[in-house]
Amino acid sequence: MTPEEFRAFLDIYGSDLTKWPAGRRLAAERLLKTSDSTIDIFAEACAFEELLRQPAPPLANARRAALVDSIMDRLDPPTEPASKPPPLPRLVVSAPSATAPRKPAPVLRESWAFGLDRLFLPMPGLMAGCAMAGLLIGVGLGQMAAGGTLSFMPAIYGGIDLWLR
Questions:
Q1: What does pLDDT average to over the chain?
Q2: Are 61 and 54 in contact (CB under 8 A)?
Q3: CA 64, CA 62: separation in Å to the nearest integer?
């Protein structure tokens, strides 16, 4: 391990060598025994992590009160609720005049009137059946192209033979 690698792993895993992976930990311990520059780098990392572990100094009560007052002064003052809520806007809908001609209702297309809408109702089932047939044909052709036998075909044909009798 080089000192540059040691510094990179020190940034990744920290100064506690027990948390390092075993192979890298052994290489780091060997490097610490042989290199003075890595000892200095390791000592700096240990001091920095110790500084991070120290708790923050507590605030004096007067300072804490001043901070809270400063924050509260910056907040918007509470608004007092209105005595009466504002009125809701009214929608004015005028009734159609008796003299205005009424618009005729839309006429459905004739093709739907003859029941063609029912033609598309069995489509999902038809599509699923076609997909299954395509799968069986594809598997069968693949088996035949590989020179194998179709093990599921006798069962299918046997079922058809029993059904036809």
A1: 76
A2: no
A3: 5
pLDDT in tens, 88-121: 777 666 665 666 666 776 665 555 555 555 666 6
pTM of the model: 0.36
CA 44/CA 41 separation, integer angstroms: 5
pLDDT at 44 (0 to 100): 92
- The Cα 160–Cα 151 span in angstroms is 15
**8 Å CB contact between 24 and 9:** yes
DSSP secondary-structure letter at 20?
S
Contact yes or no for 35/8 (Cβ under 8 A): no
For residue 107, how many C-alpha atoms fall within 13 Å in the half-sphere facing its CB? Answer: 4
